[in-house]
Specification:
The complex is a heterodimer of chains A (303) and B (258). Chain A is of the alpha/beta class and 303 residues long. Chain A is built from 9 helices and 16 strands. The mean pLDDT of chain A is 95. Chain B is globular, with a radius of gyration of 18 Å. In chain B, strand 14 (233-236) and strand 15 (241-243) form a beta hairpin. By secondary structure, chain B is α/β, with parallel strands linked by helices. Classes of the chains: A alpha/beta (303), B alpha/beta (258). At the A-B interface, strand 5, strand 6 and helix 8 of A face loops of B.
């Protein structure tokens, strides 16, 4: 028996629950030289901003125990470039294309969601980047901004709306609930945890812009708990993210309540990580004689 | 577009040139041997998650089914690779990035500083086998086994510089370039450099003074090596940033600011 890995957010179908996290996969062009992108559940693009963004000064990354800090600063060529250069290129991937959008004001989120309406399969609203001066994580930490941005996107697009949350808050369940009440179709979490690494010889931060966002296996238990918390609070699908390295990690997230998962910095270590996770989920489902992968969703929370 | 592969690599031989410098040859049964001088590989040495990221190494030498790297122990990741024994395995993703363009008719001057020798060794071997004229400068702080290797392999075209004068000329690698211009006289030149940033900057300004083309290979911390994380950015002279891994690691000297 072949298990069914298919999952859904509203009416949008995914052939399997494996997505690639924003900022770890580019737009798929280079990754297409290494893996078969069409076998994935979907790809989430590098965050798109209305205007081109240069990003932060170097060094932008530093390795930490079982993980890494990054401070890229949402470098991207802007909406116009995405429409003319990227969009035609990614059509060839026979999987869901999810555009990650990031703004510095509610208006920018409006422009982005309106312009991209109908052009991709869903939007992931980035209100959780810890590495930008304006907007980013500060939106995701403020309940009014979360509400206003989610509503603005909802009102300006017919696409499924996913809101990506920062874990750098005291009450992530409350933030998730606001997203649901403001019209989000799904919640993805977590973006990176804000962190710091110091060069003791130079007596300076190891990053050019002082602090960064921590990702990798180091944050997995934290992310897993956050997913389980949010799953218990909302009825819309939850997308789990944070230190997922292999199929076993992915299954843990599904058991904690995730409908889909995002593979992030694992791709840096192994570009085949996401594909291997799809294969691993198939093997696990067959071994467990499951009809549908969704049979195990949230299973630990129901004990 | 060419496929990028993650090769299985088996340590074949390891030679210690200095207490902290090794030449390590790996066998890659599936590697067809095609790579350009200046390209690099991303090495994943452990199956645990610490170190978490791969480490970039320039291809020092390669052929069908084999790649050699020049490794200096600088930290956690390099120490693990340096400690590997014959027949131990790791993964190598690549070949990655853009290599050095070959000179058309110019006399090439290769300027290597310290461990920056790796990509230029590969270039020198290619130039030698294609019978292209070139000079090679190797600069280091103090005499080491590395300069012996360079001399032994490339012979009389090699010029050695040491900062303390313990071997060759007591100067920096750049200090030797003008004497090569003088010696070779009026002709077309191209400069190729890899080494410390200060050395690369000097190479670029010297090339500008003489109006000769200059290509530099840059090094930066990187996570992915394939242009998706945007971690290894270098300022473009034009606008915005370029990635060392995908737009480089070899750049025209005029195209980058660092």
């Amino acid at each position: 028996m072949k298990a069914n890995l298919e999952v859904q957010i509203g009416a949008l179908k995914f052939k399997n629950p494996v997505l690639t996290a924003s900022g770890t996969f580019g737009y798929g062009k280079i990754m297409g030289r290494i893996i078969d992108i069409s076998s994935l559940g979907g790809i989430i693009t590098k965050s798109i901003t209305t205007k081109p963004k240069e990003g932060n000064p170097a060094p932008r990354i530093v390795e930490t125990p079982c993980g890494m800090l990054n401070s890229i600063g949402l470098e991207n060529k802007g909406l116009e470039n995405f429409l003319t250069e990227v969009l035609p290129e990614i059509q060839k991937f026979k999987t869901n294309k999810i555009a990650s959008i990031a703004g510095e004001s509610v208006d920018e989120y409006k422009i982005l969601s309106e312009t991209l309406d109908g052009k991709v399969d869903a939007l992931e609203v980035n209100i959780s980047c810890p590495n930008v001066r304006n907007g980013g994580m500060s939106f995701g930490q403020d309940m009014d901004s979360v509400k206003n941005i989610t509503r603005a996107v909802r009102e300006n697009t017919s696409l499924p709306v996913i809101v990506k949350l920062t874990p750098n808050v005291t009450n992530i369940k409350g933030i998730a609930k606001i997203c649901e009440n403001s019209g989000a179709d799904a919640i993805s979490l977590v973006n990176t945890y804000k962190g710091l690494s110091i060069d003791t010889d130079g007596k300076v931060s190891k990053l050019g812009s002082f602090s960064g966002g921590l990702s990798g296996p180091a944050i997995k238990p934290l992310a897993l708990y956050a997913v389980s918390e949010v799953y218990s609070e909302v009825t819309i699908p939850v997308i789990g993210c944070g230190g997922i390295m292999d199929a076993s990690d992915a299954i843990e997230f599904i058991m904690a309540g995730a409908t889909l998962i995002e593979v992030g910095s694992a791709t840096f270590r192994d570009p085949m990580a996401a594909i291997k996770i799809v294969q691993g989920l198939k093997i696990y489902s067959d071994k467990e004689k499951m009809n549908k992968i969704m049979e195990i969703r949230g299973i630990v929370n129901e004990n | 577009m060419k496929r990028i592969n993650d090769f299985r690599a088996i340590l074949e031989s390891k030679r210690q040139i200095e207490p902290d410098i090794f030449l390590i040859e790996f066998l890659l049964p599936d590697f067809d041997g095609s790579a350009d001088p200046g390209q690099f590989m991303m090495l994943k040495s452990v199956s645990t998650y610490d170190p978490f990221l791969r480490r970039p190494y320039s291809i020092f030498d390669c052929g069908k089914g084999r790649i050699t790297i020049l490794l200096k122990v600088v930290g956690f990741g390099s120490r693990i690779i340096a400690g590997m024994r014959k027949e131990q395995e790791l993964n190598m993703l690549g070949p990655l990035g853009n290599g050095f363009p070959f000179p058309s008719g110019e006399h090439s001057i290769l300027i290597a500083g310290g461990i920056g020798l790796a990509p230029l060794w590969f270039l020198a071997k290619e130039l030698k086998s294609r019978k292209k004229p070139f000079s090679m400068i190797y600069g280091e702080k103090t005499v080491s086994g590395v300069s012996n290797e360079v001399e032994k392999t490339f012979g009389e075209i090699v010029h050695i510089a040491t900062e303390d004068g313990s071997k060759g000329y007591k100067t920096t690698a750049i200090g030797i370039v003008p004497s090569i211009f003088d010696e070779m006289g009026e002709r077309q030149y191209a400069l190729y450099a890899c080494g410390p940033k200060a050395m690369l900057k000097e190479t670029i300004s010297l090339a500008e003074e003489r109006a000769v083309p200059v290509y530099v290979s840059l090094e930066e911390r990187m996570a992915c090596g394939i242009g998706v994380c945007l971690g290894c950015s270098v300022k473009s002279s034009n606008k915005g940033y370029l990635t060392v891994c995908k737009d480089g690691p070899v750049f025209k000297g005029q195209d980058v600011e660092f």
